[in-house]
Amino acid sequence: MLSVGVYSQTQFSIATDLGLQRSFKKEQQYWAVGHTVQAQFHFTPKDGAYAWISYYSAGKFRNHLTASAKSVSTIPQQINYDNDGEMRFKQLSIGWKKYLKGSCQAEEGWNLYAYAGFGLLLGRISNIHSTVIDTNSYNVPVRVGKANFKRLTADLGLGWETPIGADIFLYTEGRVWIPTTDYPSKFIFINDNAPLVAMLNAGIRILF
Length: 208
What we know:
The chain is mainly β. The chain has one helix at about 1-10; strands at about 10-25, 30-40, 45-55, 60-70, 80-100, 110-130, 140, 145-165, 170-180, 195-205. An eight-stranded antiparallel β-barrel has the order 1-2-3-5-6-8-9-10. The longest helix has 8 residues, at about 1-10.
């Protein structure tokens, strides 16, 4: 009987938002825009689980790099060049949502809540070099071309929302994806604790 009572009180929300993303890692700093869709399961008015999928546009950046000769007999010994990179992300995340003020079903005032979860980040990197470099003769710090990569992330967020009527809520959120794994890629110039990105999102949540 208890399990039935708890289940009958569980509510469900769908949320959608647009976001502005900033990559903070040195040599990979850029802005991008994206979209997130969420499903939220409210086990109590203040606690519940979430699952979301996010996808963002490609962010562009430039690296000023140097290729060094593999042999002392190679002339020149160094070649300076630019790498024009593009990086974009998709991300899946699941975790817990906790209301610090208000509740998921508040009818007036405003709510404050926090997220904590784990995600899978699916990345795509594209590099174009300003100079054609013979990699048989030179060591390059980052490869030319395209590649996919993955990261596991710890996902944290803080949000504010207010009801606007008919079980619809307007919200803004700040989020950060913190990489928890390093799978070095020769197509990414900076691999340590990268990528490190934060987002500012705004959208609506519909409570069912």
